[in-house]
Amino acid sequence: MLEVEDFIRGAVEDIRTKIKGKAIIACSGGVDSMVSAALASKAIGDRLLAVYVDTGLMRKGETEEVRGMFEEMKISFKMIDASEEFFASLKGVADPEKKRKVIGELFIRVFEREAKEFGAEYLVQGTIAPDWIESGSTGKDTIKSHHNVGGLPKEMGMTLVEPLWDLYKEDVRQVARALGVRSSERQPFPGPGLSVRCLDEVTPENIAIVREACYVVEDELQNASKAKKMELPWQYFAALLPTRSTGVINDERMYGKTVVVRAVLTKDAITATPAHIPYEVLETISKRITNTLGDKVTRVVYDVTTKPPATIEWE
Ligand code: XMP
Question: Are 190 and 32 in contact (CB under 8 A)?
Answer without folding.
Answer: no
